[in-house]
Amino acid sequence: EAKMAGRNTLCFFDPSMQQAVAERAQLEADLREALVQGEFLLMYQPVVDHGGHVLGVEALARWGHPQRGMVSPATFIPLAEETGLILPLGRWVLHTACALLARWQHEPARAHLTMAVNVSSRQFRDVGFVQEVVRALAETGAPASHLKLELTESLLVEDLLQTVATMEALRAHGVGFSLDDFGTGYSSLAYLKRMPLAQLKIDQSFVRDLLGDASDAAIVRTIIALAASLDLQAIAEGVESEQQRDWLAAAGCTHFQGYLFSRPLPADSLEQWLGRHLGPPPLVSG
Ligand code: C2E
Ligand code: MG
Ligand code: MG
Ligand code: MG
């Protein structure tokens, strides 16, 4: 009888679920193909200080699907993680971002810029990750000191000792770390001081209603104070208005990112944006 009940539960599988499963399988097959066909691209979003000076950029992956158009990373990153495709995809992201970072080293007006790269849990946990980062730096000639890896709180909860060991190994090469989407996860504050972090990124969900929601404002103030007391930079993401920026700056936030300054841009548009903010790159002679 128990067996019958078990079998019956399978009947809850309805046509719309079946369609969702088929749809997912198709997207997964497309994702595999996308890597081979080179359908991914990187957009870059500037990070600025309160005066609007450019400090660096964050690389954000996009998938230009031949039929669906631009697919959001919110859709394909989780799928890539589940299937393991995040490993080759993440390698490509690192390599592409480091190649741009390396180019800036030869241009005095851009040589100070940092490059932030998002790293997912599965990628970070891979045994070859440290070597992969070291290789991307070596092959492109990008300076380790200008590379910032963005991690999320879930990594801390999963295996703190291993996480800290991997971070220390990369830190020894000069690579820096930010904790992304801070405040949305479950990390204990005690973990923070054990990690070689440089930055806390205040999640945009707290920034959004900062001016209207007293509890969001309190959370943001707390994160900024925490960052200051741990000697970390506080960076606010999702800044869309001058009022938000001014509030954040008055509260002690030093780094800003958001549509107020720029949307994520493809490499050539970024170069033009940087040209307007930092002056044009020198003409190549010869
Ligand atoms: P994230 O790292 O927290 O990136 C910030 C997200 O906020 C980006 O979304 C960015 O486009 C968006 N954003 C920036 N400024 C504003 C603003 O002023 N207002 C609003 N409403 N949104 C803003 P995006 O590019 O869709 O990326 C979503 C997430 O996907 C990222 O969140 C990151 O977790 C993940 N992701 C993106 N690229 C990669 C990648 O190469 N590797 C991995 N592992 N994850 C990635
Ligand atoms: Mg990020
Ligand atoms: Mg974030
Ligand atoms: Mg976020």
TrEMBL record:
Residues 24-278 form the EAL domain. It comes from the Bacteria. This is Diguanylate cyclase. The lineage of its organism: Bacteria, Pseudomonadati, Pseudomonadota, Betaproteobacteria, Burkholderiales.
